[in-house]
Write a structure and sequence with these properties.
The structure is a homodimer of 212-residue chains. With 212 residues, chain A is of the alpha+beta class. Chain A is 39% helix and 15% strand. Chain A has helices spanning 8-20, 36-47, 66-83, 89-97, 130-148, 161-168, 193-196, and strands at 58-63, 108-114, 152-156, 175-183, 206-209. The longest helix of chain A has 19 residues, at 130-148. Chains A and B meet through helix 1, helix 2, strand 1, helix 3 and helix 5 of A and helix 1, helix 2, strand 1, helix 3 and helix 5 of B.
C-alpha cells in the first residue's frame, strides 16, 4: 500500500478521536479487565511512533499487581501533599478536591521509560532531549489508539520518578517519562475536567508569523 | 456527542494513519503550497493535545521567508558537520550521504516552542519536564493530522536551538522543542528511510511484566 492517500472520511475519524481523547482519573474508571488483544493494539501503536534516528528508545512495564500499585499510590499521595502548597486560596481549596489519578481504580498501569542509547544516535547530538521526546510521541500514539478502542488513559505526573524506578527495580540509566493508568470508563467527558471546573480555559493558539 | 463510542472502522483509520506516517526529508517535498485551511486543520489538532494542568504551554512560529530558512539551513549544516564525527567507518560514509532535512525544499517550516508558565502548574511539580512533553503531544497530533491530509512533516533536530531562537527573535524563556518542515510529498515511503537503508532495524517492543 505504497504512498497511500487518505480520504476525508478517514481524516475526519482522526479529528474526532483527537477531539474526544480525555485524561481519565480514578472516579471514572470501570473495574472491567482490558482483553489482551486490545492491550496489544495500544502497545503496537507505540512501536510505530517516530523516534530520533529510529532509535526506539522506549521500555514499557505493565503493572497489574495490587501491592505495586499501592506503592505507587503512596508515592503519589506524598508528592501531592507537597504539590498543593504551591496553590493559594480558592485554587488550593479546589486542588484538594480534585482526584488526579486512577492508579488503583484502573486495571492496568503502564510505566513508560526512556532507555538512553549507549551508541551515538542520529539526530540526537544537538538536542539530546530528542530521545525523551520520541518516547512521548509513542505515548500520544497509545493515547489516541486507546481512545479509538474506547479505552481511557490517565497520565499521572505527580510522582517522584526515582521512587517509581525503585519500586519497579528499573535500571539506573532509565528515565521515567510517564506513568499511565488504563481502563474502560464510565464516560468520556465532553470537555477536559479542568476546563469544566474553570481551573483553566482553552486558549487560542499562539501563532507567530515569521518572527517574534 | 457525549461519551462517543468509536467503531472498528474509525479505529482502523487511525491505525492506518499511524502506520503510514513518515519523517519527510528534502528530496521528497514537492514545491506545491499548502492551502491555509489545511494548515489550520493541522494547527487545530495541536490545540487539542493533552497538556499538563491544561497549561497549553506551546507557541508556533510559521516560517515561509527564504532568508529565515537559509539561516536555519546554515545552522543545520554547521551542526551536521559536528554530528557526523560521532560515527565511524561505514556508518560515517552512509551518514554523509543522508539528506536529513527539507528546510528550504518545504513550503512551510514551523518552529514549535515550549513557553514555561509563570504560575505554578498542576501536575508539573514532581516532573518539571511535563511542560515540554505536553508540547511533544501537540506535535504528534499535528504529525498524524498532516498525514491524514496527505501532507508530510519532517522533524529537524540537528540544529543549535539557541541559534534558532536568535534567528526568530524568540523570548529568552522559550525552549525550542521541534523544527518542523511541512509540504506535499512525492511519496510516503513504505518503511522509514533509516530502516530501508539498514541504519537500524525495527525492534520488538521491550515489554516488562510487573517489574524489571
Amino acid at each position: 500500500m505504497k504512498n497511500k492517500q487518505f480520504t476525508s472520511n478517514e481524516q475526519q475519524s482522526l479529528t474526532e478521536i483527537i477531539y474526544h481523547r480525555r485524561d481519565i482519573r480514578g472516579n471514572n474508571f470501570l473495574n472491567a479487565p482490558i482483553p489482551q488483544p486490545i492491550l496489544d493494539k495500544i502497545l503496537d501503536a507505540a512501536a510505530l511512533a517516530p523516534s530520533v534516528g529510529l532509535s526506539q528508545p522506549w521500555e514499557f512495564v505493565i503493572i497489574r499487581d495490587q501491592q505495586t500499585k499501592q506503592s505507587i499510590a503512596d508515592n503519589h499521595r506524598e508528592e501531592n501533599e507537597h504539590a498543593e502548597q504551591a496553590f493559594k486560596d480558592d485554587k488550593k481549596a479546589l486542588y484538594r478536591q480534585l482526584k488526579l489519578e486512577g492508579i488503583k481504580e484502573s486495571p492496568i498501569n503502564i510505566a513508560v521509560f526512556y532507555k538512553p542509547n549507549t551508541q551515538p544516535t542520529l539526530g540526537q547530538n544537538s538536542m539530546p532531549e530528542m530521545g525523551e521526546y520520541s518516547v512521548v510521541c509513542a505515548i500520544q500514539n497509545m493515547w489516541l489508539t486507546a481512545r479509538s478502542l474506547n479505552v481511557g488513559i490517565g497520565w499521572v505526573s505527580i510522582l517522584n520518578p526515582e521512587k517509581v524506578k525503585a519500586t519497579l527495580n528499573a535500571p539506573q540509566e532509565n528515565k521515567l517519562i510517564a506513568y499511565l493508568c488504563l481502563g474502560y470508563v464510565k464516560e468520556f467527558l465532553e470537555q477536559p475536567e479542568l476546563e469544566m471546573l474553570n481551573w483553566h480555559k482553552r486558549q487560542p493558539l499562539q501563532i507567530i508569523d515569521e518572527k517574534y
